[in-house]
Amino acid sequence: MRLWGGRFAKKPDELAHQFTTSLPFDRRLVEHDIAGSIAHARMLGRCEIITADEARQLEAGLERVRAGLSSGELRLDPASEDIHTEIERLLGEQVGALAGKLHTARSRNDQVALDLRLFLREEIDSLRQGIASLQKALVDAAEGNMDAVLPGYTHLQRAQPVLLAHHLLAYFSMFQRDRERLGDCRKRVNVCPLGAAALAGTSFPVDPSFVAEQLGFDGVFANSMDAVSDRDFVLEFLAHAATGMVHVSQLCAELVLWSSAEFGFVRLADAWCTGSSIMPQKRNPDIAELARGKAGRVFGGLVGMLAVAKGLTLSYNRDYQEDKEAVFDAVDTLSGAVEVLREMISTAAFQRERMAEALEQGFLTATEVAGYLVRRGLAFREAHGIVGQVVRYCEKQGTTMEDLTIEEWRSFSREFGPDITECISPRGAVEAKASPGGTAPERVQEQIAAARKLLKE
Ligand code: ARG
């Protein structure tokens, strides 16, 4: 069945059909297509474009199609061009010629935009829940490891001691913004395009607000040409999904690095590692690697859709059909990655002894020593220079700052006193970082409390 055979003497070439059909993927919109059609049928009846009885029959027929498809009694025919055609065909089997009235005052152009918006709205809601449950796993891990201190890095060089909880909560913040961005994007997704018809609106007395209300939209389109060709909501979603995957990839990269023998900061659960087919000893973080790798396809979807939309003239062009696979793939990839990451984090065993060992080398508290001198009146720049000499001295001697005698300290500055030893302990350094948002335990506890509050909202 085709929705447009009348003016053609011949059927489309089979190859052309194969090339253009969207049914293999837009079948995923089946529920949304039916829901949209029911709302449209009700509106047609209410606005007396069809009779109330016809509207009721159409709705009942669509309900039967829905039930038949979900029970398996009805099947989609791959010969159809798209899900919209196919639902109308199945409706015809239920209600006969009356099915032909459903498309009054509607085009597939506004219909497909509607379906995709309905789909995305639902998926955004479940993605946001998925991200929240990953965030919860991060807060739980932070709270359960408040005594773990590890090197914080810049340039992947040991920099300053930080609480593991602080490190994990940095990811909480990233995912919080991802969740907020998706929520913000949802506002622009949740605008109803139905009633734009092909591009110009319709001469039938439709009520787009009624349809919008039926389907839970916050508003209706302002311009019919924009309504059928706007794919900003797709671009926006893909950009936010891509940003989410950046964060996923970063956390996964840490798990991969930290689970190496060189770092040893984390031991991933057996269930979240795989073995090697040749090396019996291996325990590979494949799942984390793959989640990291899958960021690439989401970026690809975004760049692909930008390229599809760029330079397109108004209004609907078939090019837009390309939007669906990019959206589906981004939704599946992000939701899958977030879920596995949540499980990996909640089953990971953080290795605080290895973290403590890593704090012994690398002069991580050198900044603290400079601070010590500053509190005794030296300019920071001068203090920085003195501590630099201390570090150079230790390196030459092959010792650490902990090994220095008070006489050695005082040879660099008369300001050093015996309390310098407290200042160079990693735990002391962490406790001293009590500035707002810093790594001191009380500041981190505040972050945990704030995070828990955000998760409750
Ligand atoms: N499969 C099409 C899409 O995904 C549906 C809209 C087709 N509209 C048209 N005028 N050919 O965009």
Task: Explain what you see.
- The structure is a single chain.
- This protein is mainly alpha-helical and 457 residues long.
- The chain has three domains: 14-104, Fumarase/aspartase (N-terminal domain) (Fumarase C, Chain B, domain 1, Orthogonal Bundle), CATH 1.10.275; 117-192 and 222-357, Fumarase/aspartase (Central domain) (Fumarase C, Chain A, domain 2, Up-down Bundle), CATH 1.20.200; 358-456, Ribonucleotide Reductase Protein R1, domain 1 (Orthogonal Bundle).
- The protein has 20 helices and six strands.
- The protein has helices at 14-20, 23-26, 30-46, 52-71, 83-95, 108-144, 164-189, 208-214, 224-229, 232-258, 286-293, 295-309, 323-347, 352-358, 366-375, 380-397, 406-412, 420-423, 426-432, 441-456, and strands spanning 149-154, 157-163, 191-192, 219-220, 266-267, 349-350.
- The chain starts with 13 loop residues before the first helix and ends with a helix.
- The model has no long low-confidence stretch (mean pLDDT 96).
- The protein binds arginine (ARG).
- The total beta strand count reads 6
CATH fold-level assignment of the largest domain: Fumarase C, Chain A, domain 2
CATH superfamily of the largest domain: Fumarase/aspartase (Central domain)
Question: How are helices and strands ordered from N to C?
Answer: HHHHHHEEHEHEHHEHHHEHHHHHHH
Largest sheet: 2 strands, antiparallel
Q: End-to-end distance, in Å?
A: 49 Å
Shape: elongated
User: Which ligands occur here?
Assistant: arginine
Based on the structure, what is the oligomeric state of the protein chains?
single chain
User: What share of residues is helical?
Assistant: 55-70%
Percentage of β-strand residues: under 5%
What is the structural class? mainly alpha
The number of helical segments is 20
Q: Could you list the spans in which at least 5 consecutive residues all have pLDDT below 50?
A: none
CATH class of the largest domain: Mainly Alpha
Q: Provide the CATH architecture of the largest domain.
A: Up-down Bundle
Counted up, domains total 3
Overall average residue pLDDT: 96
Estimated radius of gyration: 30 Å
